[in-house]
Design goal:
There is one protein chain. This protein is an alpha/beta fold. The chain is about 45% helix and about 10% strand. It has 15 helices and 11 strands. The strands form 3 sheets. The protein has a 6-stranded parallel beta sheet with strand order 4-5-7-9-10-11. A 3-stranded parallel beta sheet has the order 1-2-3, covered by helices on one side. A two-stranded antiparallel sheet has the order 6-8. α3 packs across α10, α5 packs parallel to α6 and α9 packs across α10. The radius of gyration is 22 Å and the shape is globular. The chain starts with 7 loop residues before the first helix and ends in a 12-residue tail after the last helix. It binds manganese (II) ion. Manganese (II) ion (MN) binds next to loops. Manganese (II) ion binds next to loops.
Amino acid sequence: MSEHVIDPSLLERHNNARMPALKRDYETLGEQLDRRGVSIDAIREKVAGFGVAIPSWGVGTGGTRFARFPGPGEPRDIFDKLQDCAVIQQLTRATPSVSLHIPWDKADPGRLNETAERFGLRFDAMNSNTFQDHPGDRYSYKFGSLSHTDAATRQQAIEHNIECIEIGKTIGSKALTVWIGDGSNFPGQSSFTKAFERYLASMHEVYAALPEDWRLFTEHKMYEPAFYSTVVQDWGTNYLIAQELGPKAFCLVDLGHHAPNVNIEMIVARLIQFGKLGGFHFNDSKYGDDDLDAGSIDPYRLFLVFNELVDAEHRNEPGFNPAHMLDQSHNVTDPIESLMVSATEVQRAYAQALLVDRTALESFQEQNDALMAAQTLKTAFRTDVEPILALARLERNGAADPVSVYRESGYRLRAAAERPPVTGSGGGIV
Ligand SMILES: [Mn+2]
């Protein structure tokens, strides 16, 4: 039995008050879905089994290039972060794991395991950091890390990634995510070919240190911090990396790391088809890598991504096992509230995608009936699946309305009293 951070009796009162209306809504939706030949209970069970990881840095307030405005009660260390993650999991039941970032979250593994176990959490992919200099490091990453022109700097970056694997082994992680800030700001500054050769050579060494049952996720990003070119700039390069490294290497898709208007769901389909989709960093964007809350700008795009995922599930695509994580920067909201809403939005897109009539869709595609094919997707997307999500949370002792219980609990005020304000930034931009 894991420790409850939010008072269970408050949660019970909240849920009991909402249960009668929720049951009626669930039954009504159940009847509608029944007419479409869909079992609402089967959808609810699938949603209940769906989880998305919380990045440890997500529970801190983010910032922009201009400023960071810290909120009250910000986590001081990884143990405070785990407690905040426990609140999100207790109320949403959608976030059973936490993804650590090294060196920000370096701590005694025994205490990490004990704390995670106490809160009923586990550890997801490890994230390395060679996009900033670490105190005590001999070499600077100002001009790159794994692709640096200097062999000793590359070696330091390789060793850091191997250290992340070693730490991960002690806390039950099974994956390493590598995102680098390497690139150039001026045409001619760096040789595209040589930089990529050096990157691949470095990554071969990291790959060689992976345990048998681990996966390596590489994350592309087209610009920022480098503004002319990045070494791992797009999904094509990322696919080349995964191919080059071997069967344990996969591509990670961060929804904000593409050129504007790129068809992300199609990239997802391609990676699935060739067995190289590693997983996601969910967020949303209007202009670039905005790191806004998942589904807050373009919920239809999130749905279309999940439509590809559910389609792969439906086809029993061999080896299909993408990792799901949120990766957002919360500048104007309480990070716990944003993460709860985003976890729910990701589940919502999954539930809506499960409602797509795949037999009908396939038949419309075969007949080249463009209008009806599009309408088949829209019918699923337009369905309000909230009763399914709420009941899936309730039956596992989560909250019917997570944000409202959280606000009523006064958790943030208590945290503010216990945690003095922190200065500096834990980052949160990758
Ligand atoms: Mn990311």
